From TrEMBL:
UniProt-listed Gene3D superfamilies: Glycogen Phosphorylase B
A GO molecular-function annotation: glycosyltransferase activity
Coiled-coil annotated residue ranges, if any: none
Native source organism of the sequence: Pseudoduganella buxea
Name of the protein described by the UniProt record: Glycosyltransferase
InterPro entries reported in the protein's UniProt record: Glyco_trans_4-like_N
The Glycosyltransferase subfamily 4-like N-terminal domain, residue ranges: 23-206
Keyword terms, alphabetized: Transferase
Amino acid sequence: MVNRVLMIAFHFPPLHGSSGIQRTLKFSQYLPALGWQPLVLTAHPRAYERQGTDQLKDIPPEAVVQRAFALDTSRHLAVGGRYVRAMALPDRWVSWVLGGVPAGLRMIRKHRPQVIWSTYPIASAHLIGLALARLTRLPWIADMRDPMTDVDYPTNPLTRRIYRWIEDQAVRHSCAVVCTTAGAVRNYQQRYPQVPPERFLLVENGYDEENFAGASAVTQPAPAPDAPFVLVHSGIIYPSERDPVELFAALADLQAAGQLVPGQLRVVLRATAHDEYLAGLIARHGVGAFVTLAPHIPYRDALAEMLTADGLLVLQAANCNHQIPAKVYEYMRARRPVLALTDPVGDTAGALLQAGIDTIAPLDNRQRIAQALLRFMAQVRAGTAPVATPAAVAGASRRARAAQLARLLDHVGVQRTLAPVPNQAEET
């Protein structure tokens, strides 16, 4: 008998420009060898604002992929650039639920999966998972990645209430809640003390060795002897969670003090998805001579850029202390020096410190950023900047993470639950 898992994921090729694609894509690649055939239920490509074909070839032949009806409310249902807010709750792709539930039922009837798995950060994916689990009574694994809610997140109170309801339903009705950081696991265990703590599990993000093998084959021009120090941030920069305003202020301070001059440093912000906002900050601080906003490039080219950069930049605010950007694991595998601007007590800093990387400064402190940047550049030039240890790199592969998920699927597929969830109404 073939074991099958229905994987509900919005982020899947041909979506372009999000590292979130890699989690589901790599699980789908490695699960077949571990005894599980992936049945991927994703959104119709029209729902994606940006599309690219470079990762379509990475979808394994064993995978069954169904692209269900979905629209982007802001692009397809707006009139004069405006739309009714209820049409974008819990997110702009809520119409995917209307297409995803019937499509999922058809897949379940045809392929008979043993387990349902849905993954955030698109909340509608968990609505589909919840509906299918309730309708079919199949065991459901809710891959939260990060906590969906916090005290002040999402910032809109109505959205926060809806997210909290989805979160509560996922905890109540799923067999397991999976997170990508230990801090997120602890967060859920503390918030849901009535739920057995073993129901909350850790399966981190990682890097893929095959992608890096392909990236190594990408030819990069050799830098000129007098080339500037290149510091690369690869991926989305969220204004509320990775705001580089204090970094730009630090660059302005260093320039004003004569400690940094144009031509010494080039900060490349690759595929930020918020170029207009960042361009305003760059102009306001007068650091255009140091900072470059670079367009999206194919994934393997982005990895090749990491492999040849002088340094790699992490931006993560303290309001995301229970999150680790997926790119951190790729940075580790690149074995390049990393400058992390993040809370020293957050999970991102913890992961880097565990890997042997201590070049860290708070994202919200311009003075400490300035000091850390100068020290980092000096360490790199001297060849003394720390890089991830071989042990840390070996343990962070996507193949190893897929093996963790396969063990969970084996358990849930047989037991159909990890532990019963007490009815909250009975406890009050």
